[in-house]
Structure formats: C-alpha cells, structure tokens
Amino acid sequence: MADLAAVILADLESALGADELELPTPPEVALRIRDEAESAAVTGNSLANVISADPGLAASLLRVANSALFRGVHVIDELPMAINRMGLEYAANLATGLAMQQMFQATSELVDRKLRQTWQHATIVAAISAYLAKTYTRLRVDQAMLAGLTHTIGVLPILAWAEENDHLLRDSMTMDKVIDSLHGSMGTMILQHWEFPDPIALVPSHYLDFSRHTEAPDYISIVSVAVHEVARINSTPTTVPTDEVAGYAHMGIDPTDDAFIEAINIQAQYALSQ
Fold first, then answer.
1. What pTM, to 2 d.p., does this model score?
2. Summary mean pLDDT of the chain
C-alpha cells in the first residue's frame, strides 16, 4: 500500500508541476453571488434575487438567519430580510461557501461516500469556527465560517483523479493517505486560484500545524481548534494533545471548561441537523 501511495503522490505532484491537474471551478451561482456582492449597487434585494435562483441555497440562508447565531426576536421567512439581518458581506460569504456543496458530487460509490463525509466534516468545522470567531475574537464570523467550509477543498481534485484511476478506488486506506498528504497544499492552491484573500486561502495548508504560534488569533488558529474539537466529539485519536494546540491559548480558551464543551457540542449538533 505504501508503494502505491508513493506512486500516486508522485503522479499527482507531477501533474501539478506540469499544470496538467485540472483545478475545480466554483459553481456558477457562487460566481454570480461574488459578482453581485462586489457591485457598487448591491442591496439586500439584489443579492436575494441572485441567491433565489438556487432554492436550496436560499433555504439554507433562511435557516442560518433564524438560528441561535443571530438570535432574532422574530422568525424570518423572506430572503431579503434574512440578508439584512446577517449583513450583506456575511450573507454573500455564507452563500458562496454553501454553494460549494454542489461540487461535492461523484459518479462512483466510494468517491461519493468520501465526498459526503468531507462535506459533512466541513459544515461542522464551519459552524464551530463561526462560534469561535464570534465568542473569542474580533475576526469576522462570516470569514471564519467560509474558512471552515473550504478548509478541505483540496480533496476535490484528488478524488476527481481517483475516479480516473481504478487501482486507487479499490483501496480506501491508500486514498486517505494520499488525501492527508496533499489536500492542504492543493486547497491553498485552489483558493488562491479563486482569488480568495490570503487569510482564508492559507488555511488549508496550515490548519493542521497545531503548534503554530501567532501574536493574535487568525482564521488558521480558529479552524485548527475547530478541527481538534470535531476530533474530540467523534472520539478520534489525534497526534497532538489538547494542551499542545496553540489556538486555544491564542483565543484564551480553557478546552476543559464544561460551558465551552457544551457550546461546541451544540454547534456540532446544529450543523448535523441542517
């Protein structure tokens, strides 16, 4: 298995170096949302008109607008009102991130299952990241959520390649090894190709550096903590003890505090219920 993984890694790295590996492009609706959000004439109504072209996306934004994250007094059932409650930038970034789900589709059962697992993990990390940004930092909540949703975007070209190479599809352990080795660098490459700002684009290639120290919390440290918390929730063994995850200290968090653990569990449960 190790030899096969090495061959696959070499093949992918060679394709990357020769610019022969096709990078995914954002869904059309995500591009339209970005264009509208960057327009000088953008309003809640104009952004709602673009998002409404995708009913599933519109429904997702309504659910978020009515969630505990915004704690509105009244239930909102109209998209322009939801966008006004969240703010234009937040709504646009959230919609862009949620539109990425359309990319997580495959033709083979094994790849489809892996894509679904990756997307579910990303949505949980995104929910926790948003909570961490809002509660423990002055960073933008929408950017934290977007960073969480896209931190494993580098899995996409790897699985697309896997669909064309049956020898990898037969071995999920080898596939996981290749994903673990390459998805970070590929994720940053994709986000930079999409012209995402560096504070988000650099998250995929750095979020697993749990000992990374910064003077102030950033989106990398937020996603690092969120990923570590998901591992705790799933009882997944990690190579880094909690007290060695620098992101907790960056945000002044006591990871053993019962209130913190309960709040994180609530965010994860909410993400799974959507």
1. 0.83
2. 87
